[in-house]
Each structure stands twice: as structure tokens, then as C-alpha cells.
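Notebook entry, cofactor series.
This is the third protein in the set we're modelling with a bound small molecule. For this one the ligand is S-adenosylmethionine. I'm keeping the input format identical across the series so the outputs can be compared line by line later. Sequence and SMILES below, as received.
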Amino acid sequence: MGFPDQKYLGAFYIPLLFQLVPQKYRRNLALNLIAISPHYFGQHRKSIQNISRQNFLETEHKRMVNDRQSMVERAVKPYINQEMTVLDHGCGPGYLAQAAAQYCRRVIAVDISAGVIACAKEINSQPNITYLTENKSDRLSQVGDSSIDFIYSFAVMLHVTDDVCEQLLKEFFRVLKPQGRVICEFRLESPENKNLAIEGSGKKKSLFQRVLDKYTLRVVNRPLEKIERFMQNSGFEIVSFSENPGYSNGYYTFVLKSTQFAKVSDITVSV
Ligand SMILES: C[S@@+](CC[C@H](N)C(=O)[O-])C[C@H]1O[C@@H](n2cnc3c(N)ncnc32)[C@H](O)[C@@H]1O
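Returned structure with ligand:
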């Protein structure tokens, strides 16, 4: 039950392609690969229609740099300093890691897709960023116990199954130092976006649904109670959560700390 791994650019031959292509073409290869996904480069945007391919790639790359820079300044920078080792979970092409690396000692950036890591190394490389490909969707097998001061994970948990989500939170708990904080994005379920393909529902999926699961990044909307249960089972409490600015469709950022679970009534909500 559930979705297959949401491994965008995960095909085994993508890192090989980078080795075959001469160095001077690798940046362009990375930008072209990233452009395949509407998650990063917006082919649909009016302002970038009718421009050359190269201009489009550079314009969208710059837009992503600026977008992730402001995300880091708003959501991550307040929690980190130059002494810290920070984990970027589900780093994708590394735009967040690149921005965060300015404000901490080291960023360990982990993704399940070897292809996207190959792109990140090409376009968002810094001496204090270590990119790692994780082979198991529910593990951080190359990250040591209590070795991380701060973890952030944007646009990842909302693409994974419940089992993987809960296990990953347990992994966050394992690798985080006792006083560490986690920032994690989820999409909250509402009457408008109630998930039809809920994992474990026991319903047989249609062929269309199975094709959709295989080839698109699916979004899992979860009720708050379920997210709280995952946190509780993993040893975290919610410090606060707030809807992401610029969105009004249920994307929330949760701040977590390890210790005892807080009651819903104790939690600060800002919308
Ligand atoms: C929508 S992208 C977000 C990338 C980045 N966090 C950002 O906001 O720019 C989701 C990323 O999570 C990665 N991912 C999905 N499931 C994962 C898992 N179980 N473990 C590690 N990475 C995962 C995907 O390969 C993809 O690169």
C-alpha cells in the first residue's frame, strides 16, 4: 500500500551521464534536468515564455536561488549559527543548502535521488556542504547519532507514506543533539483537500491512480492529530506551527524539539 519512493531524477544512469559529459557542459546538463520538474522551474509562467532556452534556464535558476534564499532567511536562519552542523533532509538540487551554508559551519544535505544529488553538486556546491545519497527512503544511514544541531525538511514529508514519515522522524530524533530543533513541512488535511489515496485505506487503486503514483510527486494531506501522533511516537513535541506565507492551501511548517509531547492546547498557532 502507498506510493513508491518519490525519487525525482532517481534513474541510475543520471550520475553516469554527468561522468560522461565534459566538465564545461555539466552545469547546463544539471539545469536542463532540473527543468524537467515543474516543482523547480516554472515552464508555465507567462513572464518566461518566448525567451530562448538558455535564458529560460538561467532566469529560473536565479529565481530559485532567490526564492530559497528568502525561505532560509525567514525559516532557518533564526535557528542556526556559525558553530552548527545542519541537516538538510530531502535537499533536492541544493538551493536551500547553498543558502543555509552561509549561516552555519556545515550542511549535510541528504536526498534519496542520486540524480538530483548529481545536479546539486554541479550547481550548488560549497566547501561546507556535504551531499549524500541515501538508499533507503526511511533512513539516514550515513548520519551519526546525536551529531546534528538543527534539521530542516521542506517539501519532503508531504510526499512520503505514513510509515516512511514516522520512521524518518525517528531517524531525526536519533541524529539530533538533545537540545536540537527540527523544522518540518507538512500539508494539513481539510474538507477541501481530503486525500483520496490514503495509505492503508485498503481500497484497491485504479490503473490511473497507480500510474499517477508512479510518475508524479504525490501530496499527502494529513490531519493534525496524525502528525501529532507521529511526533509523539518519535520523541518530539511541537513547539509551534504556522501556515507558510504566500500559501493559503494548507502547507504548514512545524518547529519540533525532542522531549515530552505537548498538549494541543499548549501549542502556538499563527496563521
Ligand atoms: C519537492 S523536492 C524538495 C527539495 C528541497 N527540499 C526544496 O525545497 O528545494 C522533494 C525532494 O525530496 C526527496 N525525497 C523524497 N523522499 C525522500 C526520502 N524518503 N528521503 C530523502 N529524500 C527524499 C526527493 O528526491 C526530492 O529531491
